[in-house]
């Protein structure tokens, strides 16, 4: 007697982990902003701190724009497009 096992297709998909130009640009830009913001905060330089937080927000926008332009996971302009 054989048992039929139904596997949810979600569990059989390959996980991409966001390895794309859009994801890398977003994360690296946000990381630079966060590090600069931490240094500015430690030195009580509030102007530079807020500029750095603006860079973090810019990283989010940059990632979204690049994803919309096709550089996200599976995007038309990404190297891993199928």
TrEMBL record:
UniProt entry keywords in alphabetical sequence: Membrane, Transmembrane, Transmembrane helix
UniProt-listed Pfam families: DUF6704
Domain of life assignment: Bacteria
Database matches in InterPro entries: DUF6704 (IPR046550)
Membrane-crossing residue ranges in chain numbering: 21-42, 48-69
Protein name per UniProt: Uncharacterized protein
Organism of this sequence: Glutamicibacter protophormiae
């Amino acid at each position: 007697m054989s048992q039929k096992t139904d596997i949810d297709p979600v569990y059989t998909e390959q996980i991409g982990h966001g390895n794309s130009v859009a994801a890398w640009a977003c994360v690296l830009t946000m990381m630079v902003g966060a590090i600069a913001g931490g240094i500015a905060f430690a030195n009580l330089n509030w102007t530079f701190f807020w500029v750095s937080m603006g860079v973090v927000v810019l990283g989010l926008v940059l990632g979204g724009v690049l994803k919309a332009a096709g550089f996200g996971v599976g995007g038309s302009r990404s190297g891993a497009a199928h």
